[in-house]
Amino acid sequence: MPEREIYQKLLSACDERRGGFLLLIDPDRSCPPELLELIESAEESGVDAILVGASFMFSDKFSESVREIKSLTPLPVILFPGGAGQVTSHADAILFMSLISGRNPQYLIEEQVRAAPIVKACGIEPIPTAYILIESGSYTTVEYVSNSRHIPRSKSDLAVAHVLAAEMMGMKMVYLEAGSGARLSVPDEMVKAVSANIEIPVIVGGGITTPEDAAEKISAGASFVVVGTRLESPGNKNRLCEFTAACHPTLVPIFK
Ligand code: 1GP
Description:
By secondary structure, the protein is α/β, with parallel strands linked by helices. It has one domain (5-245): TIM Barrel. The chain is built from nine helices and eight strands. It has helices at residues 5-17, 33-40, 62-72, 105-122, 141-146, 156-168, 188-197, 211-219, 237-247; strands at residues 20-25, 49-52, 77-79, 93-99, 125-133, 173-177, 202-205, 224-227. An eight-stranded parallel beta barrel has the order 1-2-3-4-5-6-7-8, surrounded by seven helices. α6 runs parallel beside α7 (188-197) and α8 (211-219) runs parallel beside α9. The protein starts with a helix and ends in a 9-residue tail after the last helix. Residues 24, 177, 180-182, 205-208, 226-230 line the site of SN-glycerol-1-phosphate.
C-alpha cells in the first residue's frame, strides 16, 4: 500500500495557501471539449487536485473516463466514489468514505468491504474520509441513492458530534456535503463549528456557485472547497481562476 503521499500533498497545499480548491468532474460528463479544456488548464488555474465520481453513474465508461482525465493533467486525480463500482487503477488515490450521517449499513460499511480488495489490488492510496450529508433545501440525488437522511442545517451540534466520532475513529478527512447542484450550500456557521472541534481537514462541497461563497467556507475554517456543477458549462476557465483565488487566501494581495 503506498505511503500517504497524496494525503500529504493535500495537507501541504492547504498549509502553504491557507486553503485548497478541488475540481469535481462527473465521469458521466467527461467528454465535452470545454470540460477537457478545463481539466487541461486546471493546474495553471491553481486547482490542487481533481476529484472524479458521482453518486449515480449512467455510463459504463468510468475507468476510461478516469484514464482520460489523468492523461490531461499532472494534478493528483482522486476518486470520489458513489460505490464499490467506482474504483480504478487509473487514479492516484481514493476518498475511502463512510457515509456516517446515515444509518444505512450499505454505505457505512458494505460498499467499503466490497471495494477494499479492489483498492488494494489497484495499489491506489486510500484516504479514510467521513462523508456527512447536510440538509440543502431540496431532496438530492445522493440522499435518494444512499437512502439516508441528512443532518438538519440548524443542528451544528449534531454535525460536531459526527465529526468528533470520525476523528476518534481515525478518519483522516471530513467531507461536509450539501449534494451536487444543491440549492443551499453547507451553512458557514456549521463549517465554523465543525472546524473548531477537530484537527483533521474539512472538505466542503455541494451548491457552491460563487467565488464569494467558496471564500466564506475557507474563512469559516474549511480546508478545501469542492465545485463541480457550476463549472460544467462552457467557457468557465476564468471562473475557475476566480474560484481558486477565492480558496487560496495567501495568493491574493491583502490591502489594509
Ligand atoms: C458534489 O460536493 C460536490 O458531491 C460538488 O457539488 O456539483 O454542486 O458543485 P456541486
